[in-house]
Each structure stands twice: as C-alpha cells, then as structure tokens.
Amino acid sequence: MTVRKLALLAVAVVAAFACGTASSGPTTGSTITLGAPLGLTGSLTKESILTQQGYNLWQDWINARGGILVGGVKHPVVIKYYDDTSSANQSAVLMQKLITEDKAQFLLGPYGSAATATDAAIAEQNQIPMVEANGAAQSIFNQGYKYTFGVLSPANKYLQGVIDMAATLNPKPTTVFMLSADDNFSLEVANAIVTYAPTKGMTVFPVKKYKNGATNLSAEVQAAKAANADIVLNSGHLQEAIAINKAAKEQKLNAKIFAYSVGPSTPDFIAALGKDADYVYDGSQWTPQVKYTPAFYLTVAQYVAAYKAKYPGLGDPDYHVAESTAACLALQRAIENAGSLDAKKVRDALAALDVTVFFGQIKFDTRGINIYKPMVVEQIQSGVHHTVFPSNIADAQPMYPTPNWDQR
C-alpha cells in the first residue's frame, strides 16, 4: 500500500510540474539599458521632445508585454536620457558616459545629423549598435562605420517629392529658389534639388546659404523675392523655417509654392505662425495616411490612437515621433532575431534586417542607411496637416497656387 501511494504521489508531482512549466511562459530576465542623449534644452528642443515621445511610446508598449523576448526570457527595457543641450559635441560626451558609466547595452540616436555624426563615432569606437531616426545626412554613413543604422529616408529625398508633385500641377512651376542652412543635412537636401529639379524641367537659382541656427533671415528672403521664382524651398530646421515664413510675409515674398524640409510637419510650426502657416508644404517621412501592413507592433491607426492616448491634446503624431518609434522597433526585432544580447550578434542582425512596420520598410544598405522607404508630401490647410502627394495615399488635393499675402 505504501509503495502504491508513493508511486501515485510521484506521478502527481511530475504532472503538476509539467503543467506548471507549460503554463508559466517565458521567465523575466535582466533589464536592457538603452542610452539616448537628446537636446532637451537649446535650439533643437522641440524636435528632441518629439523624438523622446516616439521612444517612450515603444518603451511603454514593450514593457507592457514583459520586455524583449530573447531565448525564452523576457527582458524589460529602460531608456536612459541625458540632455545634450542641442550640442553635437556634448552629445558625444554623454553617449560615452552612457556606455561607460550607465552600462548602456545598445544606443538610440539623438536629434539631428550633427549630433548623430559625433555619436556614430562613439558607437563605432565602443562597438555598440546605435539605431537612429533623426540623422538623415548621408555623410554620417559614408565613414565606413559598422555599428550605426538609420531607419529614415536619407537627406537627398526630403524635398524631391515636392518637385515630383509640382511637376503634376497646372500651370506647372518652372523656377526654383533654394535657401539652405550650412550644415551637412541641409546642404545635402539643397544639392539634391539642384541636381533633381532640372530633370523635371525646372530651373534652379544658385543656392542661398545661411548660418545654421540663424533666425534673422531677412536678407536671404529679399534675395528670394528678387529672383521671383515659382517655388521657394528652404532646407533647415524648425526655427529657421518659422523665421523664413515670417520674413516672407513681412517682405511680401510671393510664390506659387513654399516648401521647407523640416518644421512644417511639427505642431509648433502652426502654433508659432497661426494662419500664416497655411499653404506651406513639406516632405514627410510618415503621415497618418500612409498604407503599410506591419509585420508586428501596431497598425498606423493604432499608433495614432496610442499617441493621442499618451499625449492628449497634441493632435496626430508627426513624423519625428513615428520614425523614433521605428528605430526602437528595428532594434527590438534585431535583438529577437539574434536571440542574444551580444552587441556583435545584434549588429549582424541589424545589417540583415528587412521588415515592414507602421512606419514603412526598414532595410539597410551596406552603409547602414535606409534607402528603401519613400517619403510623402503634406500641406497645411486651414491649420491642419493633409497628405497631398502621392495621390494614392492623399487625403486632400494640393491648394495651388499659394495666394499672395495680401489676398489671404
């Protein structure tokens, strides 16, 4: 009798253990630390805050699911931030601190091409992967680095869509005046237009350059007015775009199209300019109208809803937010594909990555830049962002030509 009871007890223990093992799911492992210096003060504050919002949206989502799954173990994620005061040199110092002192295992990029360039050198020296979303200058990726990957379309694509759209309009604009800040990103955007616009039958005046970060741009706007071009383009950032638009109104610079590489997509552009922001175009990495079928994470509509729930009152997320979340998704999927937290194995998984998420396709060329995702064109109409090109995703028609300032 005793032997029979012991046998039954042994069977019961084995069965209980088996059931417990089957139902317990993945265990919780160590926390993964990611590092990200951002310009939370200084000239790039607005864009850096949008970047942080995108990172935080993903962090909430992945941690709600227990973390990144690696070999049957879920690892929660913490993102460690430092304020680089919108300084590229300070960003590099802080990136090294994140690695050395905070033991960051992987890196997320800062805002801006200048800071991304300095941080990429740090990532390379330490052989730690950095996935970035806000440094589009191809010069970053022409250094032979192996540990930096950018999910966004490169700088030369930023305003090409505006030219493509303009070529479809009637009457077709034929002349382009290009203003540009003197940083690498802005000059790459401008030089691409100088080369590309003539292929669409348009003449480009010599590029008028100004100092990066300048906000007194009256002389540059006066030069644009003297040219009397059909299209006035600016390659710069938010503060410069606002300054140019204000100066255009003050000096009565009229054009059929005003388009700026960075700035109009942000809520701050409309907040700063009010009705004067209307009719302005920009090239956008992403809008809520894009149509992608994601392999994982959220759909476009779900992403917009998640953003509005976390940041009520701010409207739709702009592309800086979306591309920043996409950088996190690329890193997550690479870690999962590597099945390891080893930096070299994750780097190799990033190099081999080819996945579509709500932001679009993420696939890197041999330099580490995503040349596979197209951009779109949006226009501000009655204080609202609308996608106007290409037509298959547009939710509005371009309002063209732009009325003269005294007719608005």
Would you mind describing this structure in some detail?
With 408 residues, the chain is α/β, with parallel strands linked by helices. It has two domains: 28-155 and 290-363, Rossmann fold (3-Layer(aba) Sandwich); 157-284 and 379-407, 3-Layer(aba) Sandwich (Rossmann fold), CATH 3.40.50.2300. Helices cover 39% and strands 19% of the residues. The chain has helices at residues 2-24, 45-64, 88-100, 113-126, 160-166, 184-196, 218-227, 238-250, 267-273, 300-310, 319-338, 343-351, and strands at 27-28, 32-38, 68-70, 73-75, 77-83, 106-108, 130-132, 148-150, 175-181, 203-204, 208-210, 231-235, 257-260, 281-284, 354-357, 360-363, 376-381, 384-389. The strands form five sheets. It has a five-stranded parallel sheet with strand order 5-2-6-7-8, sandwiched between helices. Strands 9, 10, 11, 12 and 13 form a five-stranded parallel sheet that branches. A hairpin with a 2-residue loop joins strand 15 (354-357) and strand 16. Helix 3 (88-100) packs parallel to helix 4. The longest helix has 23 residues, at 2-24. The N and C termini lie far apart (98 Å). Residues 1-23 have low confidence and may be disordered.
Summarize the structure.
The chain is of the alpha/beta class and 408 residues long. Helices cover 39% and strands 19% of the residues. The protein has two domains: 28-155 and 290-363, Response regulator (Rossmann fold), CATH 3.40.50.2300; 157-284 and 379-407, Response regulator (Rossmann fold, 3-Layer(aba) Sandwich).
